[in-house]
Amino acid sequence: MRKPLVAALFALVIAGAGAAPAVAAPATQPKSVTAPASAESAAAPAVQAVDFAGTVALSNCSGSLVRMPASEADDPALVLSNGHCLETGMPTAGQVIVDRASTRTFGLLNSAGTRVATLRAGKIAYGTMTDTDVSIYQLTSTYAQIQSSYGISALTLDAAHPTAGTAIKVVSGYWKRIYTCNVDGFVYRLKEGGWTWKDSVRYTSACDTIGGTSGSPVIDNATGKVVAVNNTGNEDGASCTVNNPCEVDASGNITVRQGINYAQETYQIVPCFGLDNKLDLTRAGCTLPRP
Question: CB of 37 within 8 A of CB of 118?
Fold first, then answer.
């Protein structure tokens, strides 16, 4: 994973500086795994060139202001990042965090990558590194309040599974850098240290993400929607170790691709949030791991 910057320093001791589940970036030099304001329903914004608008910078990782396809303007806004970027530390295999109080702050960026606001969490709505590597924070502000104050709309999560060959951009709010490549394919199981992730996205080599990019939204160029969240990469060519994830197929065969980076799909998040952006892991279609 791309370590959270501070976490990356720790990871240097236990496994070398790299992409522990795309962990956040080191305190001095981030490195992560990878590291419409109206009362009506918030319709997805018109497709525009992908830029930094709606992305956020965490203390050690990247992230994005996101909405579900059915989210409304007066819903509390959500921020998406990686589970390994949580301020509480990386969840252990099998651990799921739900509705935990948080006052974490996020630097909101505009299209040019300029920080225009500091947003604050009210809680960690969901966080895990089991099956996927994701954290979702609920903010103290609504989408309408953010749009009205700063002119920034949330990015929409795509409710459909991504497609191989899709042109994508990985947008890092931490580094203020955009990586451009394609979805190379999907990994049955991606294993890194004690964590295993299902149906992960593999990038083509052009997306050479680094620590601090953990939690960056992976955006479909054609739709402008978020299809995955950046989280790790194989740095040294080792097999299945921290910062060196390996691919495992359905027959148990292992493949190592040094220098190749990965993300976790986000379509499965959509069915788990209902009215008022409330998390409900029992909703029809919700397959996220439960506590």
Answer: no
2 within 8 A of 34, measured Cβ to Cβ = yes
User: Is 39 in contact with 19 (CB distance < 8 Å)?
Assistant: no
Burial class (CB in 10 A: 0-12, 13-18, 19+), 132: buried
Q: Say how far apart CA 181 and CA 50 lie, in whole Å.
A: 13
Number of residues that make up the chain: 291
Mean pLDDT of 79-96: 98
Phi, psi of 10 (to 5 degrees): -65, -40
Residue 14 has phi, psi (to 5 degrees) of: -90, -25
* DSSP H helical ranges for 67-181: 143-150
Which of 251, 245, 285, 283 lies closest to 161, judged by CA? 285
Cα gap 125→74, rounded to integer Å: 17
β-pairing, 62-67 with 55-57?
antiparallel
Q: What is the mean pLDDT of the chain?
A: 89
What homologous superfamily is domain 1-36+50-286 in, according to CATH?
Trypsin-like serine proteases (2.40.10.10)
Kindly report, residue by residue over 151-184, the tens digit of the pLDDT: 999 999 999 999 999 999 999 999 999 999 999 9
How confident is the model at residue 49, as a pLDDT?
83
For the residues 142-152, what does the mean pLDDT come to? 98
3-state secondary structure of 218: strand
Kindly state the average pLDDT of the residues 53-70. Answer: 98
Global pTM value: 0.88
The pairing of beta strand 155-156 with beta strand 62-67: parallel
